[in-house]
């Protein structure tokens, strides 16, 4: 599939960092947020489908892609605040969002503190309650000294080896734990998507999140892993997510 060219591609100052974003298409705004260690490049092959109905905004989250590299430890709540400030800069409210894993947690965090900004969101492989330090075996393997096993990370980041190293090292700081009260504060319509073979995200935790969200739907994808939106599942995911985003808030 031919990749679309963005109408806008900019890196702008947000607080003490710089955040890169691209805009495609016309229509109501839709932000798309990538997983940890990725960048907006991960959504490139999805843009055409969504840009036919939305103004798609791809964002490189803090420290990733073409945004400025990490200069302080990762803080998921602060990353969400930066996304909110970017939307303020673009004079946008009531936007739709799609977020994978880290991107999904960022959406949930933003929705809990800035409910005015999000109308609807599709959250893939995230549960708003996850700490990397609970998975020491992952952290023991996912280290820069083992970069030869994670060569794909380099394709996402424009800042060279120092940025790649910082992304890998900051995984240990990944922590999000929204309280029930914070989850209850999310007013956006939410579609939760989880592969039934996804590792490290228990189905029970996403079911609990579903119960505590004021307006949510839950889709457990049979046979899918963490990337329940891609590969063999992509066509169905795009169709279902577009239907959800177009009907949310009606």
What does the model show?
The chain is α/β, with parallel strands linked by helices and 250 residues long. It has a single domain, classed as Rossmann fold. 31% of the residues lie in helices and 23% in strands. It is built from eight helices and ten strands. Strands 1-2-4-3-5-6-9-10 form an eight-stranded mixed β-sheet, with helices on both faces. Strands 7-8 form a two-stranded antiparallel ribbon. β1 and β2 form a beta hairpin. The longest helix has 14 residues. It is globular, with a radius of gyration of 17 Å. The mean pLDDT is 96.
Which secondary structure elements does this structure contain, and how are they paired or packed?
Layout: E1 8-14, E2 17-24, E3 29-33, H1 47-51, E4 55-60, H2 76-89, E5 95-100, H3 102-113, E6 118-124, E7 129-131, H4 136-141, H5 160-170, E8 175-177, H6 180-184, E9 189-195, H7 203-212, E10 216-221, H8 234-247
Parallel strand pairs: 3-4, 3-5, 5-6, 6-9, 9-10
Antiparallel strand pairs: 1-2, 2-4, 7-8
